[in-house]
Amino acid sequence: MRHPLDTLDWPISTERLLLRRATPDDVDATWAFRQLPETQEWVVAATVTYDDYRERFLHEEQLANLLVVELDGRVIGDLTLAIQDGWAQREVADQAKNVQGELGWTLDPSYGGKGYATEAVRALIDISFSRLGLRRLHADCFYDNEASWRLMERVGMRREQHTVKDSLHRTKGWLDGLSYALLAEEWPAPE
After folding, report:
1. Which range of residues forms the domain containing residue 13?
2. Is 9 a domain residue?
3. I need a surface site. Which of 60, 69, 145, 181 has the fewest CB within 10 A?
4. What is the pLDDT of residue 191?
5. Tell me: the pLDDT tens digits for 90-104?
């Protein structure tokens, strides 16, 4: 089955950035920032070796959901959009297929504080609603990952859930978790 991101014309430009589908050739560029301790602190799966990272990166499902963020031809981050079915009762389940998405992002820390992550995530939200026709987007993070939840708030996502010590961090133990979401009718978010 063709991935919904395959239906779009890539690359897509923002004011300063270029978003495009990730390819196997991006493994080295993304490894450069994903191997950093400050990046690995919050990603779902830390990768200790290049070979392990390469194997995970090249996995078909991972690559299908991955976009690369470029600034002046240099890869400075990546975005994920995992398209999902909404929860539905059996009689209407066919109407809930591929209607929502889970967002994720990782930015090279040396490019932080310049609004690049906000610009890239806003573009992905716009793509998700205006070009892919999704009805809802969501993202999760540890409460302690303040940079991530502040980004969600900057792009207009609403905090839907604050859970208490339900999220197990590899070095910090059980932490609080946060869930944010945004509906298509709530977009565009006020700037």
Report:
1. 4-134
2. yes
3. 60
4. 57
5. 999 999 999 999 999
